[in-house]
Amino acid sequence: MAKIGIFDSGYGGLTILEAIRKELPQYDYLYLGDNARAPYGTHSFDVIYRYTLQAVKYLFSQDCALVILACNTASAKALRTIQQRDLPLINEEIRKCENAKMVNVLGVIRPTVEAVPGITKTGHVGILATPATVSSESYVLELQKIAEGLQVTQQACPLWVPLIENGEHNGPGAKYFVGKYLRELLAKDSQIDTLVLGCTHYPLLKEMIEGWLRYHEEIEESNFPQAIHTEHIRIISQGTLVAKSLADYLRRHPEYESRLTKATPLSTDSTACGSCRYLTTENADRFSQSASIFLSSPVQAEHIDLE
Ligand code: DGL
Fold first, then answer.
1. What is the span of the domain harbouring residue 245?
2. Do residue 41 and residue 68 come from a single domain?
3. 182 and 289 belong to one structural domain
4. pTM for the complete prediction?
5. CA–CA separation, 16 vs 88, rounded Å?
6. Distances (CA, A) of 79 to 22, 104, 110, 112, 225
7. What is the phi/psi pair of residue 32, to 5°?
8. In this predicted model, what pLDDT tens digit does every residue of 140-192 receive, in sequence order?
9. Is the peptide bond between 111 and the residue preceding it cis, with omega within 30 degrees of 0?
10. Of 180, 199, 264, 287, which is least surrounded by CB within 10 A?
11. Residues at CB less than 6 angstroms from ligand 1
């Protein structure tokens, strides 16, 4: 029987895992963070694709029937190639083995983008993401596909992931760089009313971002002469959207759903919780400690090597 694999370059995917486990607690999960090689967001396409494919293949080798790329950078740079080039080959090999079943990989960008048209009133949308996600233009292209006429402005935030990976997301450095990137984005388009946190690490900065949007005018009035009103701006983070989209996928694909292991409830009106294992390419103790910032309960991670 099979599990759901959740992959991220580091800790960010835990924000997606948490939301998925809330929505679909009954399944078994295997989380893999490639922390030793994070951040991905400043790497080239070739490197991100190679690392992501290694992780995906590893998760398949550990009985994952579905892998969620809980990483926008990997979704933007590697998902399409993996789906179009690698999955057909992997599934062809699988078909040759007796009793082996098909596997699939899903990303996080499409479910996020689908929520945008229902939220923006001005039609002006801001995307905050890693440099790699921004350069892929995935958000711009996907948004144009589903809602013509939206004005999409992107802002690369190269220092947010390193700050979060190093536990500095509440510190003065994070505060400085939250203000810097938001100011740069809003200087490009002051009519933005909807902000997409297009990186699974960024929910850790959500409170700080909301704080800046609410209070920066008072603090900065003197050196921000054309005051931009920001307190009405809505923030979209991905966890719930990806979780609901996965639930919908499983409803539409019983060939996957029926193969996933499910915990048995104690009574008919309760839902039992499945298991979750945590793998990291970094030091397992370090991961276990830092993961507690992202999750509500402590975890014990295991170290693996990817190649
Ligand atoms: N959580 C990843 C994302 O959603 C971070 C990428 C990185 O490692 O830079 O893009």
1. 3-107+239-303
2. yes
3. no
4. 0.93
5. 26
6. 25, 11, 11, 15, 43
7. -130, 120
8. 999 999 998 999 999 999 999 999 988 899 999 999 999 999 999 999 999 99
9. no
10. 264
11. 8-10, 12, 38-41, 71-73, 130, 133, 161, 199-201
